[in-house]
Design a protein that fits this description.
The structure is a homodimer. In chain A, 44% of the residues lie in helices and 11% in strands. Chain A has helices at 9-12, 16-27, 32-36, 43-55, 78-88, 94-103; strands at residues 30-31, 59-64, 67-72. In chain A, strands 1-3-2 form a three-stranded antiparallel β-sheet. Chain A is elongated. The A-B interface holds A 5, 8, 10-11, 13-14, 16, 19, 22-23, 26, 72, 74-75, 77-78, 80-81, 83-84, 86-88, 90-91 and B 5, 8, 10-11, 13-14, 16, 19, 22-23, 26, 72, 74-75, 77-78, 80-81, 83-84, 86-88, 90-91. The structure holds a DNA duplex.
DNA sequence: TCAATACGAAACCTTTTGGTTACATATCAA
DNA sequence: TTGATATGTAACCAAAAGGTTTCGTATTGA
C-alpha cells in the first residue's frame, strides 16, 4: 500500500476479522479484551486490527478508566456506499440509471427520446 | 488469506488498481492491452489483477479473435451492497432501521411503543 | 501499598501481495 | 508462410500484512 492510500476504507474492510469486529460493535461499545474473546488470536493482534479500523474512522475510542471502549462509526461506510452507487445503475433499473445521470450531471450522455422531441434519435 | 476466503469480493476491491479497472469496464468491454494503457505497470501485472477480478466474478471474459474482452459483472457487487445494508440502519433514519428489522424478521428485537399498547415500555 | 487487570508498543517472523522479466502459444494479416 | 500482435504462465523479488511474544505503563481495588 502506498502512503497516499493508507487508512483506506476498502483496505480496512478487506480483512474478515475486521469485518466481524465491525458487526460486534454494531450492538454496543466494547473494550479490546472483550472483542478478542471472539477470535482465535491474541489480544495484541485484535488491537492492531482496531488501530487500522480507527485510522479509517470506522471506529472511535473512548477511555473509561483503565478500559478503552471501541465504538462503531458507521458514517465512514458512506464512502463505500457512494462507490457502490456508481455501479448501481448497472444492475438496478432505468429509474436508478436516470437518477445516477441526473445526480452526476451527465444528462448529456443519455440518448433521450422525449415525446415532444423533433430530433431524430441516432439509435433506438 | 486462507483457502476458504480466496476470491473474496472484499479483497478483490481492496486494491485501487482493481477498482479503477472496474470503472473502466463500466463503459465498455476492453482487452487487456487497452486496459493496461491506463496504468503505470506492465500488461502482465494488469492481467493478474483481471484474474483476481474474474475469480470473484466481478468481470467475465469473452474471446474475440486473438483478443480477450473483459466485461464488468456488476451483479457480483450485490454481496457488498448486502453487507453494507446491515449497517445502513445506523446512519440513515428510523424508517430504514424499521425496514432492516422487518426484512430480517427481527421485529422482536424492537422496543415498539404502539398507540394501543397496554405494556409499559422499558425505556423511552 | 501493591497485586491484578487492561492496554499499546516494539521486535520479530511467515505468508501474501503486487510487481517484474522471460518465454510459449494463438491469431492476424501481408 | 511468416512476422507482428495479444495474451497467459512461470520464476522470481521486495514490501506489506497479519500474526506472535515480550515488555512497559495506567488504573483498579482489596
Amino acid at each position: 500500500m502506498s502512503a497516499a492510500q493508507k487508512h483506506d476504507i476498502f483496505q480496512a474492510i478487506a480483512d474478515p476479522t475486521r469485518r466481524k469486529i465491525l458487526k460486534l460493535l454494531a450492538d454496543k461499545k466494547l473494550p479490546v479484551t472483550a472483542i478478542s474473546r471472539h477470535f482465535p488470536m491474541s489480544r495484541t493482534a485484535v488491537s492492531k486490527h482496531l488501530r487500522i479500523l480507527s485510522k479509517s474512522k470506522l471506529v472511535s475510542v473512548e477511555k473509561a478508566g483503565r478500559e478503552k471502549l471501541y465504538k462503531l462509526q458507521p458514517e465512514a461506510l458512506l464512502e463505500l456506499k457512494e462507490w457502490l452507487s456508481f455501479f448501481e445503475r448497472f444492475w438496478d433499473n432505468k429509474i436508478s440509471m436516470l437518477k445516477h445521470f441526473v445526480e452526476n450531471e451527465e444528462i448529456g450522455k443519455l440518448n433521450l427520446i422525449m415525446p415532444q422531441s423533433n430530433e431524430e434519435p441516432k439509435d433506438s
